[in-house]
Structure formats: structure tokens, C-alpha cells
Automatic annotation (TrEMBL):
Alphabetical keyword list: Cell inner membrane, Cell membrane, Membrane, Transmembrane, Transmembrane helix, Transport
TM ranges: 12-32, 44-63, 89-106, 126-149
Similarity comment: family membership: Belongs to the TRAP transporter small permease family.
Species per Swiss-Prot/TrEMBL record: Desulfocicer vacuolatum DSM 3385
Any one Gene Ontology cellular component term annotated for this protein: plasma membrane
Pfam annotation, one family: DctQ
Protein name from the UniProt record: TRAP-type C4-dicarboxylate transport system, small permease component
Length: 156
């Protein structure tokens, strides 16, 4: 992985961490205000939005560090050539899946923007969060491509 991509991953991870801290603060504030009979409006919506943002922004880091789910029990039984071929097939399937997912997320976001869909309580538009999800999945494709063409990154 290039230094540029590592910087992007770090920025995404930092943003995801900030959203996580903000999520904790909103949760604590909601618990505190509930004690006085004044719960925060829209907490459920904010938690949903921030959870989606955290997922989209942190997934690249888990892919970079190879902390994603990988079942090696079956693959370890095969010779190294078969293992490499299986990893490449897996990477190609991942590229196709995440490319299609990113494309559909962009289509969905543009549709939600066109119809001006917003959350019920706080009236927050959905499309920016979905565009961040689309960016996150497109970034995964980019990381998979880099991993596929990086001979030293052959170990998953």
C-alpha cells in the first residue's frame, strides 16, 4: 500500500474515532438528561448515522491491517500456488462486490437527494451519509486492487 493510501486510511480512521467519541458523548448526555425527564430528541437517528459513518470510515483500516474476517483453515491445507490463486479469486470477487455496492449506494444517495428524503425527528438528509458509505466501499476496492498487484502483500 502506498504512503498516500496510508494517509487516507489514517484520516478516515481519525474521523471514525471522532464520530465514536461523539457517539459516546451523545449517549452519556442522553442518559444524563433522561434522569431529569428531558431526553435528547433524535438520539436514535444520530446513533444510526454515526454508526454508519464509523463503519464506512474504519473498514479500510481493518483491510490494511488484515484484521477482517478471513477463514484460513481450508486454504492452509492447499499448496502455496493454490493458496495464491484462491486469494486472487477472492480479491476479484471482493472487487466486483464492493464496486457494485458502491455504485448502488451512489445511485441510492442521488435518488434520496432528488426526493429530499430526511430523517423523521431531526430532519437530517440521508444522502451525505450514504455518499460516505459509497466512498468507503469504493476505497475498499482501491485497497483490494493495490493488494492484488502488490507481490509483498500476497499474504492475507
Amino acid at each position: 500500500m502506498t504512503d498516500f493510501l496510508k494517509k487516507i486510511t489514517r484520516i478516515q480512521l481519525t474521523l471514525g474515532g471522532c464520530f465514536l467519541i461523539l457517539m459516546i458523548c451523545v449517549t452519556c448526555a442522553n442518559i444524563l438528561f433522561r434522569q431529569f425527564g428531558m431526553p435528547l430528541r433524535g438520539t436514535f437517528e444520530v446513533m444510526g448515522f454515526m454508526g454508519a459513518l464509523i463503519f464506512a470510515l474504519a473498514f479500510g483500516y481493518s483491510l490494511e491491517k488484515k484484521e477482517h474476517i478471513y477463514v484460513s483453515i481450508l486454504f492452509d491445507l492447499f499448496p502455496p500456488k493454490v493458496q495464491r490463486a484462491a486469494r486472487r479469486i477472492n480479491a476479484l470477487l471482493g472487487m466486483v462486490f464492493f464496486s457494485l455496492l458502491s455504485f448502488q449506494l451512489v445511485k441510492n444517495a442521488l435518488n434520496l437527494k432528488a426526493v429530499e428524503e430526511v430523517s423523521e425527528t431531526l430532519r437530517i438528509p440521508y444522502y451525505p451519509v450514504i455518499l460516505v458509505l459509497a466512498f468507503g466501499t469504493a476505497y475498499i476496492v482501491l485497497l483490494i486492487v493495490c493488494e492484488l498487484f502488490n507481490p509483498s502483500g500476497d499474504k492475507s
